[in-house]
Amino acid sequence: MIRLRNVTGPSRASPKGSTADIEPASAWHRWTNDHLRKIRRGGPVRSNQAADSMAVRSAPVDAALPGLSDRAGAAVPARRAWDGSRSVPPPGPHGGDGARVAEALGVDPGSILDLSQNLNPFAPEVAAVARQHLDALRRYPDPSASTRLLADAIGVRPERLVLTNGGAAAVAAVAAEIGGRVRSEPEFGLHPRGAAGPVWRSDPHNPSGVLAAAGETADVWDEAFYPLATGRWSAGRGGVVVGSLTKVFACPGLRLGYVIADDVERFARHVPEWAVGSLGLAALAELLESADLPRWAREVASARAALADVFACRGWDVVSADAPWVLVRAPGLRERLAPEGIVVRDCAGFGMPGHVRVAVPDSLGLDRLARSLDRLSNGDSGS
Fold first, then answer.
1. What CATH number corresponds to the domain at position 236?
2. 275 within domain boundaries
3. First-to-last CA distance in the chain?
4. What's the total number of domains in the chain?
C-alpha cells in the first residue's frame, strides 16, 4: 500500500531554512502518482523537473550519544561547526556515502548515520558473528556447504543456486549471459538497459518501494529487499532470481549474493572461482540460524511508519510503500544533513531530482534524525 502524506495544506512551502521555491502539494502528488502508475503498468517514466538547488547551511555534528549502536551512528563526536572550508562530497551512484562524508567532516566513519544504504537495523551484530570464524581466513573458500544451507533456507534445490560476491555480482553474472532491459524507469542502476531482451524488475521496486502486483511478470526478478518487505525469502516465481544477503543481515563487507535459476550453470560460468570469501561462507550458517524474517519484516514496517511520521509531522511530503525506506520530496536535504553526520540517498540518479531515499534506522537513529531535522528547521548552526 502506498501512502502519500501531505500535512502542509493545499500549498506546500519548503521547510524553514530552505531556499527551494514554494510548490503546490498537488503537483508533488500528481508527479509521484504518475511515476507509480507507470511503474505498475510498465510505461516510460521521465522527469522534466530541473534539479533543485539549496545552499548548504552551517550545521553541527550531533553531540555524543552514549550507547548508540554502530548502525545508529555510534560514538558521535562532540558538536563541531561546519566551517564551509570543505564541500559536502557529491553522492555516489548507489548510496553508501558515509565514509566519504566522514572524511569531509574529519570524523570517525563509525560516527556517521548512513541512511543512504538500506540495511536491516534489526539484524544481529555481524562483527560479533564474524569474530567467531576468523580462522576461516587461513582457508581457501569452498561454497558447497553454504550453498546447500542457503538453498534449504530459501526452499530451492542446491543445484538451482549459485553464490556470488554480493548482489551486484549476481546482477552482473545474469546480465553478462542474457542481457535485457528494465520494464520502466526509474529502476535500479545496475540492471541492463538494452533495447530488447529479458525484462528485469526489482521487487519491491527500487526506488518506489512498491511490491509487484499479483500476476505481474518479469524474466529476471531482483529480490534483494524482498525478505525485509514480506518476511519470506522469495516469491517463488518462475524465471531468474537475483538476491543479496547484504541487506537482510546488514553485512555489505561480507559480499554474499546469489542467483537462482533452473539453468543456473549458464550464469555460474560468469562467477569466478573463489568468488565468495571464506569468512562470509563460514559465518553464513550462524547468520541463517539467527534469521527471523517474519519478525524483521514486521519491525521494518513499524519503523518505516515511524520514519514517515518524522518527516510528515515536520511538513515534508513522504511516500511510504513496502520497502525498508521512504522517499521524501526534499530538495537539498542531503547537503543539509551531511554536516550533521547523517547521510541520505540523493535520487537524481533515478531521474528524481529534488528527492531523497531514506533508509529505515533503528529507534536511536530515528531519534538522532528527528533532532537534526528540528535543528535545521530552527536554523541552528551549532556555533
1. 3.40.640.10
2. yes
3. 43
4. 1
- pLDDT for position 33: 56
> Residue 239 falls within a domain, yes or no?
yes
Residue 210 falls within a domain, yes or no?
yes
Q: pLDDT (tens digit, 9 = 90+) per residue, 160-179?
A: 999 999 999 999 999 999 99
CA dihedral 308, 348, 213, 224 (to 10 degrees): -90
Q: Name the one residue in this structure whose C-alpha cell is 511538513.
A: 315
- CA-to-CA separations, 5 to 31, 34, 299, 326, 331, in angstroms, rounded: 14, 16, 21, 11, 17
Q: Using alpha carbons, select from 381, 383, 361, 325 the residue that is nearest to residue 55.
A: 381
pLDDT at 86: 65
Phi, psi of 148 (to 5 degrees): -65, -40
Q: Is residue 9 part of a domain?
A: no
Q: Mean pLDDT of all residues in the chain?
A: 82
The dihedral sign for the CA sequence 346, 347, 350, 353: negative
Cα-Cα-Cα-Cα torsion 112, 118, 123, 129, nearest 10 degrees, comes to -70
